[in-house]
Amino acid sequence: EAQVTQNPRYLITVTGKKLTVTCSQNMNHEYMSWYRQDPGLGLRQIYYSMNVEVTDKGDVPEGYKVSRKEKRNFPLILESPSPNQTSLYFCASSLSKGGYEQYFGPGTRLTVT
Amino acid sequence: GQNIDQPTEMTATEGAIVQINCTYQTSGFNGLFWYQQHAGEAPTFLSYNVLDGLEEKGRFSSFLSRSKGYSYLLLKELQMKDSASYLCAVNTNAGKSTFGDGTTLTVKP
Fold first, then answer.
1. Cα B10 to the chain's mean position, in Å?
2. Phi, psi of B82 (to 5 degrees)
3. What is the pLDDT of residue B50?
4. Measured between alpha carbons, how far is B45 from B56 in angstroms, rounded to an integer?
5. Half-sphere exposure in the Cβ direction for A87 (13 Å, CA)
6. How far apart are CA B52 and CA B29, in angstroms?
7. Which among A102, A103, A108, A109 is the top mutation candidate for probing chain B, defined by the most B β-carbons within 10 Å of its own β-carbon?
8. B84-92 and B70-75: which strand pairing?
9. Percent of chain A scoring above 90 in pLDDT
């Protein structure tokens, strides 16, 4: 089944404790992206990647890192999480940038205390 | 930067037609997307426009005017299950993807 998976689905952590949210797709997509969604707001793009070893900042990259060492994986790293990073995170992938729809993972609900 | 505006909330009656508008300002436009998101779930793709005009897909249609920076999503024969948030998103040539804040549609019997 074609899908985007994220792990973990739920995470409660403390300020400053490094964490990684994994994202994997099995559709051989070139483009992958991370978003955060806060109440009343749409999706805000954190980082995106147009292919292996190619990543770029979205609109809200501060406090996040990403890597794209393999085509299928695009982990999101929070080196020193803070409470303002409490949010719902979605990973997405598409065939390529531009004119292709994005397929979203199920979301990761992160709480930083 | 990019700016996308859409109404925060709309209400409509089952069986009716509703139009959700979206205006945008962007450079390097490379397509406008509409996604549906039910509460607590991930967004799912509804429609895509890159050229001016209307794209029809069953009960859903989407229109784009690039010169006006305007799009709308038209939902016909509304059903209760159409109650959801509808997100307008613009992609650029550089690869960025910007979403509006979403329109929460409530369908009433």
1. 13
2. -80, -5
3. 92
4. 14
5. 23
6. 12
7. A102
8. unpaired
9. 90
